[in-house]
Amino acid sequence: MAERGRPRGFDADAALDRAVEVFWRQGYEGASLSDLTEAMGINRTSMYAAYGNKEELFRRAVARYAEADMAYARDALTRPTAYAVIEAFLRANADALTRADRPPGCLSVQGGLAEGGDNGHIAGFLAESRLAGERALADRLARAVKEGDLPADTDPRALARYVMVVSEGNAVHATAGAGRAALHATVDIALRAVPGHDAGAPGPA
């Protein structure tokens, strides 16, 4: 038997995907419960029963986004060299930020804009989500230093932070209307600062 308030044929994952898009376009504060339930095709009772409150729905939406839309970041970490890791991440990120079938920019950046109504809980949650990705990249770069793939004096945390600054900056510009070619041009310049860039392949595929 369906949960009380849940419509027949309710697809929790599909509804969550629609919530992702609302939060992505409008941010956490800008997305009203009416906006969310209308997009998800459910009433408030169903939303609360399936996902909890608005904050819990947002956290689940971010997890869904990380699993599906950020899969390229996990794939990049498997590349054989540090340069290849960074290039793969930044190139795929530029493509992801400008997908025709998704809102421009990045949910983890856009979602927290104009946030401030909950004592910073959402902003802190998003910052920690981004830092988790940065730490994973730093760990991979630290391994590259130990293996001799990066110079011994490379600071893997600083390099990982640099890469994330580029990706997050591109996300802001994509939201403001910058196109894919413009983002890749930024990546071209950023990659020149990465050790091993002389051996890297020029430009996106």
From TrEMBL:
Assigned keywords, A-Z: DNA-binding, Transcription, Transcription regulation
Pfam families given in the database record: TetR_C_13 (PF16925), TetR_N (PF00440)
InterPro entries (UniProt xref): Homeodomain-like_sf (IPR009057), HTH_TetR (IPR001647), Tet_transcr_reg_TetR-rel_C_sf (IPR036271), TetR_C (IPR011075)
Record domain HTH tetR-type: where: 9-69
Known DNA-binding region: 32-51
Superkingdom of origin organism: Bacteria
Provenance organism: Streptomyces sp. 900105755
UniProt signal peptide: none
Name listed for the protein in its UniProt record: TetR/AcrR family transcriptional regulator
